Structures are given as structure tokens and as C-alpha cells.
Fold:
Amino acid sequence: MMDSQETTMAQEPVERKQYQNKEEILARVREIAHGEEAPQKDEVDYLKTVFYKLHTQERESRLREYLDGGGNPETYQITPDEVEEAFKAEMGVIRERRQQLFREQEEEKQHNLQRKLEIIERIKAMITSPEEANKSYKEFKTLQDEWREIKSIPAERVTELWRSYQLYVEQFYDLLKQNSEAREYDFKKNLEIKTRLCEAAEKLADVNDVISAFHQLQKLHQEYRETGPVSKELREEIWARFKAASTVVNKRHQQHFEDQRAKEEENLARKTELCEKVEAIGKEENKGSADWERHTKEIIDLQTEWKTIGFAPQKMNVKIFERFRAACDDFFSRKAEHFRGLKEQYKENADRKRALIEQAVALKDSTEWKKTADKLVALQKEWKTIGAVPKKLGDQLWEEFLGACNTFFEARNAAGAGQRGEEHQNLEKKRDVIARLKAAAEEKAENLQERVQQLVDEYQSIGHVPFKEKDKLYQEYHEVLDTLYKELNISVAKKRLTKFKDNLKQVAERGESALSTERQRLIRQYDQLRQEVQTYENNLGFLNAASKKGNSLIDEMNRKVQKLKDEVQLVRDKIKAIDAENVAK
Structure:
């Protein structure tokens, strides 16, 4: 009977306010730190969790804005947060207050425990006999009032103390014989009170807010315990009614929290999965900045998803958030370290590009079109081999480099416009000479050889033609010359000299040094050929002219000597042609 009347009070949940910013949280923390209300651990933990969730979001948002604005990651610094510092200070005050309040509450509980133990002992002393009970009735009522006024005692002593108190109270009433009218009055009054409490508890079954209903039920239980006994035959019945009403409310409350715990466990599972994903991304290799940025986007998406998930179970809520934040912080700190490591590489790349710009600027006003164009093209190729620099600086350097290159090439194009016109004129002139050579071959005039030589000289005096037409024109020209030389029986040496003169202009384009090199080569060849002629002529003196074999050998050597002399003459003519070209220049 006594055990069944003791109902354990479940922890009442508190509906949490949804804070929009850190300043709102700080204001509430200050109220707790400096107000009269006692700091509640659940609320303090909740405020801490929400504060650092918002704090992390703000920090990441500022970093993204900085990077999106073209900021350099290695120069980014986390600025001190005055709100966070104030929050930490106030939380320190709250910790001290909670510790002090805890000590005071424990002292008060111990004091209350002693008072209630004394009341039990005094009631116990009154139930030695009916006479003693009747004599002590007024004192008994005073002790009951005093018992009700005493509040908290150590939780581990509540059940034991209540059982003892209720036992001796009921024993006192059972002994109360002489003052039966007073006893019956108390029983009747207590029954009315407990009946009213039963009715109130039964109505709570229809209250939609199960949290509020549970809270009201705890107050009813407190009042029920503080109400004295009813007549012995009604004690079980009234308690059974109150207990049945309480069971309905308690079951609804229990189901509500089972559903909430299930949802919190689901949230914990989802948040654990997000932690694992961030940790997995943190372990992936980042081969370059593109990988870092791709993984950054993935983590930011996971952070966005995290915000859509509700709270995890209270004992894990802070821990799972700290795990998630630690994984994110680890990634972003390593990312910052990576970009700091790029600082020296960026500087080196920028310095190399500036060096190329200086070279391009030095060449931009040159009129050595081909030589300078080749150098600038080489600089452009080298530019492509240099690594990246920050985008804003890279665009600036490229504009400077491109501007210097464009200055030269625009000037070259302007100068080449006239040159191209002259080349087309030369093309028409050479085609005209070729046409006259073909006509001369068909006419077969008496002075054909002289006429051909005049046209050859005229052809060679004409300047450059467009590069695309050069090979085709050269082939057409020498085909008609070969036909004429064959018909005129002109020596191979003559043909070779003609071709040499044609090619000589190309050598001359490379400069005086190229002509000088070619002339020195020919002089060496000339000396070598003369040495060979002299050797053959010396050998001829040793041969026996009387021998038939000797005559055959002498003839062969004479032919070789003549061939060498023809080659010597050709080389001499080539040297003269080079000298003539130098004089013309």
C-alpha cells in the first residue's frame, strides 16, 4: 500500500527558444549570470551548443566571402570576436554561480532532512497509546503543517523518508480513539481533497499538451502526498483511482518522449554519417588547388545539410557537434596551410613572368622583324610553362606582356604591308621573264644563247617573291632553263653557276656573315681543288708514255685533271659572284 503511493517524477522537458543570432544568446546568458534565477544545466548546455553553432557558421561565411572576393587564403586572419569573449566571461560567472548554488542547496537539503527526521521521531513518540495520541492531537496537526512546509531533501532519501512518515501518520490516526469526531472530520476533509485531486488528474487525459499535463500531474502528486489519510476502508480505493488517472498521463508523456528520443537517435545517426563523410573527405588526397576547392564545396554542402537536422540526444548533442566541427576545422586549417605553401611558388612564378615582360618591352620597338618575332614567340612559349599566380595579379601581368607583344607585331604588320605589295610585283616580273624564256625557246633565234643569258641576268636581278609562290616559281624557271641549256649545249658547270647565283640571294638575306662564311668555304674548296690538280700533274711526269697501259692511264688522268680544272673555274666564278653581291650591297 505505502509503496504504491510513491510515484517517481520524470524529468520535465523544457521547450527551447529558437535564437536568431549570438547577441540574443549572450543577452540570455547575462540574465542567467546576473539574475536571481538559478542557472539550469540543461539550458546552459543548450545555449552553449547553439552559440558555437552560429559562431562557426559566421566564421565560415566570412572566409568564403573573403575568398570569393579574390582574397589571398594565406593572408587571411581570424579576427577576435568580442561577442565570443563576452560569452566566455559570462559562462565563467554562471559556472561559479552553479557551483555555489549547488553547495548551498546540498546544505539546505541536509538541514531539511534533519528537520523531517525529527518530525518523524516526534510523531513516533505520540503513538505509544490511544491516550497519548488523543493528548497530542493538536501538536500532531502542527507537525503535519511543518512537514508540508519543508521542501527539498537528498534525492536518495526521499522514498525511504516518505514511507516512514506515512506509516507513522496512519498509525497515529488508527490510535486516535477518544477524539473520534476530530479524526472523522480529518478523514472526511482529506477524502474531499483527494477526490478533487483524482478528478483533476482524470481531466489531464484530455489536455493536448502532454508536457503541460505531466507538469500539472506532478503538482497534484505533491499535494496528494501532503494530504493526510482517509478512512482505512477507503485508502486503497482512492489511491487506485488517483493512480489510474496518473498512469494515463504518464503513458502519454512517456510515449511523447519515446517518439522524441527516436527522432533524436535518428538525428544522431544522420549527424554521425555527416561526420564520417567530412572525415573521409579530409583523408582524400588534394593534388592541387582545384581538388581543395572541390572538397571545400562538398564540405560546405554537408554543413548546410547539418543545419537542417534537429538536436541529437542531450548526452551526445555537444559531442557530435564537436566531432563535426573538429573534422571541418581540420580540413580548413590544412587548406589554409596548403595555400600558405603556395605563397613562395606564386612569388617565384610572378617574378619569372615579370622578367619575360621586361624582355618583351625591350623588344617591342625593334624593326628586325623576323629575328624579333622569333624571340617573342619563344617568350610566349616560355610564358605558358610558368605556373599559376593569383588571378587578379595574373590578369594584370598578362595584359602587360600581351601589350608589349602586340606593339611589335602591329608595327611589323604595318611595315610588311608595303613589302608584300613589292613581292607580288616581283612575282609578276619573274613570271614575265619565264614567259619570254619560253618564247625564246620556241623562236630559236640566232643569238639565242645571248638572249637567254640576258633574261637569266634580268631574272636574278629581281627581288623576293611571296613565300608561298617561291618553290613553284623556282621549279618552273629551271625547267625552261634546262630545256634551253640542253638545246644550246651549255655546260653543266654553267647551269650550276646559274643555280648558285639564284640561291645566293637567299644566303645574302641572312646577312654579311653568311656571305663571308660561304666565301671562306669556297676558298677552302678552291685551294683543295688546285692542290689535287697539282698532284695529278706531278704524277703524270712519272708515267711511261711508251707503254700502252701507260697511254691509257695518262688519258684517264688527263680527263680527271680537266674535270678538276673545270671545277676550279666554277668555284672561282662562285667566289666572284659573292664578291659582286657584296659590292651590290
User: Anything to note?
Assistant: The mean pLDDT is 79. DSSP finds 18 helices and no strands in the chain. The radius of gyration is 57 Å. The CA atoms of residues 32 and 344 lie 51 Å apart.
